[in-house]
Amino acid sequence: MSSTTERRDRALPLLVGAASLAGGVGLWWALAAFSGLPSYVLPSPGQLVTRAVSLWQAGGLSIHLQQTLAEVLQGVALGSVIGIALAVLFVRVGWIERLLMPIIVVIQVTPKISIAPLIVLWLGLGIGSKITLITLVTFYPVLINMVGKLRGMPSTMHDLADVLNIRRGRRALLIDLPYSLPALAAGLRVGVLQAVTAAVIGEFIGAQAGLGYLEKQAQDNDDIQVVMICLILLSAIGWALYTLVGLIERKLTERFGG
What we know:
Elements: H1 2-34, H2 45-58, H3 60-92, H4 94-109, H5 112-123, H6 127-151, H7 155-163, H8 168-179, H9 181-205, H10 211-220, H11 224-257
Domain ABC transmembrane type-1: 65-245
Pfam families: BPD_transp_1
Organism: Actinoalloteichus caeruleus DSM 43889
């Protein structure tokens, strides 16, 4: 009975989300069909699907989608590793936190749209500059959430690790990471959403491919259909990564809990 209730509780948000999405698409279709707005101002969902299929078959859309996905995934992975490593280091060695945290805070409060041109000038128009920008916005929420969680760890867990003579590297893997998993997941949820935004900013400033690059070209050409297609795909990437983080967290929690 509890298993059935749990599956129902998990399915309910999906059903509510699907119904909300269907309602939004229906409202969009109604506005496009009956508001009298021209299609170059508000294209219908059907027109967007037709244009997207055409772009995909031509090969252009898939190239830009793969470029943005590659940037986001690599930047999130690198930012997560840096955030986790710094969190463990800051909790273990206080003077390093006091040394580095002011620099990290200054970087984080600086608008990323101001940093992006500098990174592009340093690293060029390729994927490296986009990954660097995404890493900058991803590691911070992971770092802050994990530091807060690790500092709240019961002292008995540290005592047990000392009694068992667990070295610091193994302690981070066996104790710190499992204990801070909810905080890590919370930071990653924020990070993946910021990562998509950072990718678009980087591609707007200077790029050779990517959905942000394609959207900027479409904006310059007054092509609202392509602009909307890019926006929908970027939203889908953010939603998919956000959902994936939650799924991985649930699976790992069940495993460690078992």
